[in-house]
Amino acid sequence: MTLLRLTPVQTSPEKPGRRPAPPRHLADLDAAGRRAAVAALGEREFRAGQLSAHYFGRLVREPAAMTDLPAASRERITADLLPTLLTPVKEQACDGGATRKTLWRLHDGALVESVLMGYPDRVTVCISSQAGCGMACPFCATGQAGLTRNLSTAEIVDQVVWFAGETARGALPGCPDRLSRVVFMGMGEPLANYNRVRDAISRLTDPAPDGLGLSQRHITVSTVGLVPAIHRLADEKLQVRLAVSLHAPDDDLRDELVPVNQRWKVAEVLDAADAYARQTGRRVSIEYAMIRDVNDHPWRADLLGRLLSGRLAHVNLIPLNPTPGSRWDASPKVVEREFARRLRAAGVTTTVRDTRGREIDGACGQLAAAEVAS
User: Fold this and answer.
1) pLDDT digits (tens, 9 = 90+) for 129-166
2) Is residue 234, in this structure, part of any structural domain at all?
3) Which keywords does UniProt give here (predicted)?
4) Is 9 part of any domain?
5) Catalytic one among 43, 113, 155, 371?
6) Annotated binding-site residue? 222
7) pTM tops 0.90
8) What residue numbers bound the domain in which 223 lies?
């Protein structure tokens, strides 16, 4: 593991009731909005396309490199539409540099995290959609920190563009030089910041130079089960993958592990997931953190298998990454294997998530929590 402190950060555990809005950024706007913004600066509208080509196409954000823009125009346009949104505070790396986690400070001091993961055939970035999280899941470091605020569309997108640029510059040894996958599984509940997440998906998948040109099928949106928002996402007719953080097949336990279950029960969440699968034709991922002596019992595996049998879904078992001082711990491997065996015996496709990042506070919120504590 390597650790690099980049800049000092000042923060407080107190969460002010109102924070200043993030500065407007190119990625907050669609193509028409960018042209209007450039015109309002007294510039010709086609300059918006040039700026977008630099940011999304060439992954360049330094004004000095935008030599096709006249110097006077360049300074005015970039100052207005390319403000600094993310300041790296701390970076950790492991797996020979193929996994990198970055803690960012936003304009108001809020902290968020994102993780870049390189494989021989792909590069994936896990991004945050909120600073903190309001879902209050007790085994999650982010959930225990509470919600600070929603991220803007551009703050979400800029995480991806930043790491796309790093990838293109060869930051991940032995991996492709193009970022190809995005998972909304970092800090926050994406569907609780619905409009900005939806707009961020548009920026990430719109063809260059209007967007980053990623495939919708290579984007995964995670949720703890906000049922109305799942139906709303289905109505968007996108091809993104839905991941439902279930963590328990029975309401009694899920009420404790995922408090939003007190509003929408397991059956309602799975019915909404079914509706999403029918609308998109895409298999839903059921995320299940394996917690020792809490949700890893054989009878719960059997119940989950019965619930999911015949559905267009697969289970992704997640070895819990314990947070310091937490009473929650990961299930033993023998228990994990038996849980997976029972699911497969019920005809449910089951995988076990790659356990990258344990030595770099890999669970969402751990790095931010450590920074606040220090």
Assistant:
1) 999 999 999 998 888 889 999 999 999 999 999 999 99
2) yes
3) 4Fe-4S, Cytoplasm, Disulfide bond, Iron, Iron-sulfur, Metal-binding, Methyltransferase, rRNA processing, S-adenosyl-L-methionine, Transferase, tRNA processing
4) no
5) 113
6) yes
7) yes
8) 102-373
